[in-house]
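Dissemination and training. As part of the outreach component of the grant, students in the summer workshop were shown how a complex can be specified as a set of sequence lines and then modelled as a single object. The example used during the hands-on session is reproduced here so that future cohorts can follow it. Participants entered these lines:
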Amino acid sequence: MAGVTARRARKQRAFRWTVLIVLGVFFVLPLIAMVEFSTRDPSTWPALVDWPELSERYPALAEGITSSLSQAALTALLMLVLLVPTAVWVRLRLPQLRRVVEFLCLLPLTIPAIVLVVGLAPVYAWVTYFFGGSSLTLVFAYTVLVLPYAYRAIDAGLSAIDVKTLAEAARSLGAGWGTVMWRVVLPNIRSAVLSAAFLTVALVLGEFTIASLLNRTNLQVAINFLGKSSATMSVAVSLTALLLAFVLLLLLSLLGGRRKSTPTPFKEPAA
Amino acid sequence: MTGVAVHLNGLRRTFGTVHALDNLDLSIEPGEFVALLGPSGCGKTTALRVLAGLEDADSGQVLVGGKDVTSQPANRRDMGMVFQAYSLFPHLTAQANVSFGLSLRGRSKSSARAKEMLELVGIAQFADRYPHQLSGGQQQRVALARALAIEPSVLLLDEPLSALDAKVRVQLRDEIRRIQTEVGTTTLFVTHDQEEALAVADRVGVMRSGKLEQLAAPADIYLTPATPFVAEFVGLSNRLPGRVVGQEVEVLGTLLPLLAPASPAAVTALVRPESVQVTPETDGNGRVLTTSFLGPISKVTVTVGDVLVVAQVATDRLGSLTPGTPVRVTLQPVPVALA
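and obtained this result:
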């Protein structure tokens, strides 16, 4: 009996390791290849961490990096400013609109980026007219693009608390709507807000289609452009972007894990 | 500190086709503890929320301390409110929850005051705990402390005990009354539990379909109900067939005084189980059908002819009233209402 159990455990362990190794090879091998390839030219990595030299040798890449970073930050900010008050207001005052808002926010997910661009092109003629042709104007399109993920994250955060009662309690204690948002709602959906922001950053850093088709610059456009002249550098930058996104998602799952581990309520001692 | 008077004048509020408030008038004396009692959907919670400013009335007036606050938003009304449950801010400790309203008012000594309030509700030792580390009863104590900390002109309690265990409920109910007497704040308490309302309030208002049926002291509500609805809703009643004879009604051969005059006819009288007396007697007019043990007082169901009568008896008499025992049923001549 004991022999059977031991054999089964051994089999299971072997199976587990096989899966892990196969998957590991599948995911890690391309990364190792990227490391290997990008180190063939020894000047690549030092140049990447030396910002002045990078911007001198690859001005387009440097511009792409700064554009993407500022796009990511601004998109996250605009998304939060638009979405958090809207989601809270829908929950408090217009619960019958929840389905509609959810549907609208999910739409960008169902429309391929290429189709989105066709619709965005004439809109961006106006954007260019009002705001100029800066690549930062992509923030508007990206805010729409990240809605499905951000809305889901924030809505999940709001579901975990009783927004209506908390808001009413705060109001009855003398809080105006600003105070309700800032001091009551936001602190209680902090991890949801963070995950929405992280998802936004990860998404914006990886965006290529819209930026390329609207003739704007961002990191991916720059990498693609660089691939034609300096292959090792473009691979090194890709690898860095990939690792950054990975770190962001790791932080996200850590945050998500912490939220779940709230202790259970105490039982009231009798009498 | 003494309370202020509250007047609700002609409040109306409809949700679709439902009249949640139908021309409701309610006056609360300064420092008084009034409980609104009624079945669910009778408008009692809407009345409280309109007073709090969390709900707008379609028409009517809310006066607090003589001032018209009808158009003031909730955050300017200066009311302390305790909700059914889950109203504590999860990210703040008990003490920070209590200080919240004080800090909005820019009080410098808010933490000392918060401690004092937590002491008043008896949970000063849990000041540093977060809501999820407190039991339901403790959370409601914190909520009460938080509502009282701002020294509100009116204290509003929206079924604050309904989510608690029976034992904690009774404990906290008495505690709320003690604290209210101590601070003297005018209080409106909404509940669907009649025992709760009768036990704590100075006056109880029984509501039905957005209107106040009766507003009176608990004993008056119970003993001299103004309408059949109040008589049936508050306490238990036997519905017994009777016949109006002059100023009285004849039920099971006994003449009982009437609470309100009625024209002679066959009627249904509402008789409380405690005014029904049951004594074993071999040639009595009834027979015991069932008995149920309820602690010091027990319930006996008797058939008199084809009428079922429920009586309350002291439990030590239950031994002589086993099912099948022939008994005599008599009624105490206390005033009764008609259904």
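The mean pLDDT of chain B is 90. Students were then asked to discuss how this feature might be tested experimentally.
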